[in-house]
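DATA SHEET
Item: assembly model
Revision: 1
Owner: S.N.
Input lines:
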Amino acid sequence: MAEAVVEERATAIVFDEVAVVEGAKRGDPQALSALYEQYFPKVYRYVASRLASTEDAEDVTEEIFLRVLNNVGNFEWRGLPFGAWVFRIARNEIISHVRRQKTRGIPAELTESIADYAPDHTLAIETELTMVVVRQAVERLPEAQRQVVALRFIAGLSVAETAQALKKTENNVKVLQHKAIAKLRLMVERD
Amino acid sequence: MDLFDRLPGRQAATFAEATSLLDDGLDLDLVLELFAADAPWLGPLLRTEAGIVAAGERVQPSYYFAGALKQKFISAGVRRGTAATAAPVALPARPARVAFAAAGLAAASAIAGVVTFGLLTAGKAEPGDWDYVFRASRERFDDTLSRQGDPIEFRLRQGEARVTVITQLSSTDDPIDDATLDALQDEARELIKLAELTEFDDAQKEQVLQFEERAVAALTGVKPSANADPAKVEATIQVVQQAAAAATGIKPLPEPSPSASPTPGEGTPTATASETPSATPTQTAGASPSVAP
């Protein structure tokens, strides 16, 4: 697991965001692949931290990447990192999904487009249990703190990236993350 | 946003620094050593944060889902990129072009509005009115159409319309220019041409006579203040009368003219003395010697 994280960080260092995004706009397969590899793990973790169901997380992640693809041609460099743009799409998609669920009043439907064949079911259950505790605690936070925790500590964005994705200042994010972790510590200890 | 931005407190700033070091790959114990003075309160927070991060990193999508979505993403992206390359490139809408197009559209709308308004209001337009050109155009259009209908009816209507214009101008003391009179003459001459080609029926003859009556009345009633050329008015009357005569076969009553009146030179003594001495005894003094014994 640690090796995977190190590999992810190494990939981030060599990731030329501008070149990759421009290549993806042209339909370059290598650029599209690099873009996917760069953002998929973070986006999936972020979505999974906000949605209880694995099927919902996969559905929403798929929808996010399709939206990225549909709109990448319109993306313009205006001082905002591409990652912040991606996570704004992700955030909006999660909100839309939750609204749809509330409107229907039923759990999200199972997806049939991409089936889940987890290779290690034991690991999946263990992960789900761990995330259940975290998710339940995070859900009791105010929305702003919830968003910061999901992006900053679960998706793995930096303070600056989190601020840009949420349209907040870095100082604001620093305050929110401190308050959120302090509250979560109390919740986890009490539970 | 800057207005409501507040600096983080000392603990929040310290926590942010410490988490940044953890992001950079530093070990938790090493970070706590660096912030030794804050370790009592910072340690529990960083452990909680590390636990959340670890929980997040353990969340892994299934290989199948990750691979299938990647394949879908790349293939869809390649298709879109290819389509975008093949599609015609739309020129960006530059401000000048947009402004020019907007101005053109506005001008076209204004012209269409003026034309529509002109056509609607031109029914009683008179020469000199802004919308008279629309009336003339409509009449020319009607003229074209009339060549496929009854030309006599149309020409009479046109003539009546010219007379109406003259009557209106005269009643308001507006000037009657030559063009207005020429227009009436043209209509009358057209009637003359038609009369040469075909014979008018009784109803048409009656209409022509009414037209003549109205036209002559309007022209003779033109006030001096209308600034109409009297000779032109007189000539127009004559043409209208000629049209009526041609259409009906009834010649207008002869009017006394200077050329028809006797001149003093016509009854010369020498011409009349030898041929008709008794007929003109009182006219010429020279005749009396020839009849004397």
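QC remark: Chain A touches chain B through 67 residues (CB under 8 Å).
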